[in-house]
Amino acid sequence: MPIKSQLILSAALLLAGPLCAADVPNPLADANGKVVTTPDAWKTNVRGQTLQFFREQVYGVRPVGKPAGYQAKVLREDPLALGGLATLKEIEITFTGPNGSGKIHPVLLIPNSAKVPVPTFLLFGFVKPDPLAEANVRGGWPVKEILARGYATVAFEVSEVDPDRADGFGDGIRAIFGKQPAAADAWGALSAWGWGASRIMDYLTTDPAVDAQRVAVIGHSRCGKAALWCAAEDERFSYVISNNSGCSGAAMARSKQGERVANITSHFPYWFCQNYQQYSNHEDRLPIDQHQLLGLIAPRLLYVASATQDDWADGKSEFESCVRAGPVFALFGKTGLESTTLPPPDKALLDGGIGYHMRTGKHDLAVSDWQHYMDFGDKHWKR
Ligand code: GTR
Description:
Elements: H1 3-15, H2 39-59, E1 71-80, H3 81-84, E2 86-97, E3 100-104, E4 107-111, E5 118-125, H4 134-138, H5 143-148, E6 152-157, H6 158-161, H7 173-177, H8 189-204, E7 210-220, H9 222-233, E8 239-243, H10 261-267, H11 290-295, E9 301-307, H12 315-331, E10 354-359, H13 367-380
Parallel strand pairs: 5-6, 5-7, 7-8, 8-9, 9-10
Antiparallel strand pairs: 1-2, 2-3, 2-4, 4-6
Helix pairs in contact: 1-12, 8-9
The protein binds beta-D-galactopyranuronic acid.
Beta-D-galactopyranuronic acid is lined by residues 221-222, 246-247, 259, 264, 267.
């Protein structure tokens, strides 16, 4: 690592407060421990290896990309949805694998006032996307606010891709494309949901109203973990937002408080590959840590948000992870976080390539979070 980056990193870690001791993997080191000093060397020698560690040990290996029988069509279009605010498209994506076929039904809204193609936020949703339903706004999809800022948005229900339950393996895409019994490194539900988002991206690249160079993925909590992993796997997403993703998302594995690998793998083993379970109470044995997941987003835009009452996710650890991902952004000539000091509640750090805020309140995706994400988008992303 060049002296300058080393100094920035040490200063950053000092400022971030008491952190775990040594043995946090260096996001710039290759598998032999050699620290790379150029973006090309990182891309060639580090990125692929890091990605592979996360696949084999945490989220699982995907058996398929865009499947051969993939089809996407617009089932219904309403050019005057939401009182004329937006053009709504109900999309159907269909695909077939060795063990059956599946469908995803995303809903896309394009603001009628914006000049096409429009930058677009893709939400990993907990509920069926319905922009007229109050449940969608409560579930973190404030469509009117998003459209008013000149952005398009598309949402899908993750459970339609793969059910969010322990015995769901047989009913989702992992059954359609996977083998039983699943291998120890076979994909978990988080990776399956990200696969679904990539299939929606396949459609978005064909829709002239959408600016495919500017599609962000966003998710809250378990969906925040899935959004981060999705963008690590699929570099077409140019902006990634992790809202309160916590354990196995933006927060460090080694030093975090609240939920740990032992908790998450006992409550939600199916989110991950089986190999992840061996790190219960042994986070120190992981070949990677979550700051390297954030590093896999570089040099694209990344925003991580926490909440003051969300001790289970551990916002301080999410911030630490952003600090530790900084050297990867620096390698590309970008600043990671604009400051290495945890900002006061509700103050958003928007100037670096990594945005961050800690909202006052509980574990939630609030409209105020969205406003910060769009402010960051206005600054770095929108034309
Ligand atoms: C919790 C889980 C967290 C988080 C959350 C959610 O129960 O422990 O990791 O993902 O669920 O997704 O709402």
